[in-house]
Amino acid sequence: MDYRCKNGHIELAGAPDFAPALMFECGQCFRFDRTERGSYLGVAFGRPLEVTQAGEMVALSCSEDDFLNIWWNFFDLDLDYGKIRRSLPLDPYTAAAAERCAGIRILRQDFWEALCSFVISQCNNIPRIKSIIARLCESFGEPIEYCGRTLYTFPAAERLAILEPEDLSCLRCGYRAAYLIHAARACARGALDPAALARMPIDEAREALQSVPGIGKKVADCVLLFGLHRLEAFPVDTWMKKALAAHYPPGFDPAVFGGYAGLMQQYIFHYARCHAL
Known about the structure:
Blueprint: E1 3-6, E2 9-12, H1 20-25, E3 32-34, E4 40-44, E5 47-54, E6 57-60, H2 64-74, H3 81-87, H4 92-100, H5 111-120, H6 126-140, E7 143-146, E8 149-152, H7 157-161, H8 176-188, H9 194-199, H10 202-210, H11 217-226, H12 238-247, H13 261-274
Antiparallel strand pairs: 1-2, 2-6, 3-4, 4-5, 5-6, 7-8
């Protein structure tokens, strides 16, 4: 991907398959919000970032060092998503989903943040997930300043591991508080090691995640896809169940999409939720 430094920003010229509105609103990441200017502002890996798109030009508010050391990997810029999209086996429904949602990239998020976010996501909608995560960061993260605004880092697992569920009452996340503490303690003591999980066969990694109270198959698959970049993972929630039931016979196997089933899942999920089942 070609880029240039300009006025303290990074510009991606003619960025293919890179649509901030799709990436930050498709349900994979909950820490970037649309600003009054139409840009997206958020925090990842302890760094603030504003992403602005004007036509085919995308601007990132970061130094070249941070772009190369943090954001290049975060946005998975080594992977040619257009080539992958064109290689997927498509039927009329998935072709429409892939065309409408081209621009989604599977972000390489911090493992703990993704784990915590998708524990919160259980039986929840995106606006409420975002508000709970915002309260979590404001209550237990560290403040950072960006252009006159106070943003917050995501709290480390060790910060939550020493707490009890009742200490999270300020989040108003109900029964999920106990699950967050279980997950934090599992990460803090090394029972969930992202490096080890990334190397395991996916069934073993899913089983290891599901050994933590409060993590079922759907959450485990979300963590595999969004927290470990296991692109073969195919999370199935209510929206996906509806979409698959409407277009495929019972027993449909997402393995037909091969090693990029997770990308197809995001195309289908966002298309079903925002356009048509």
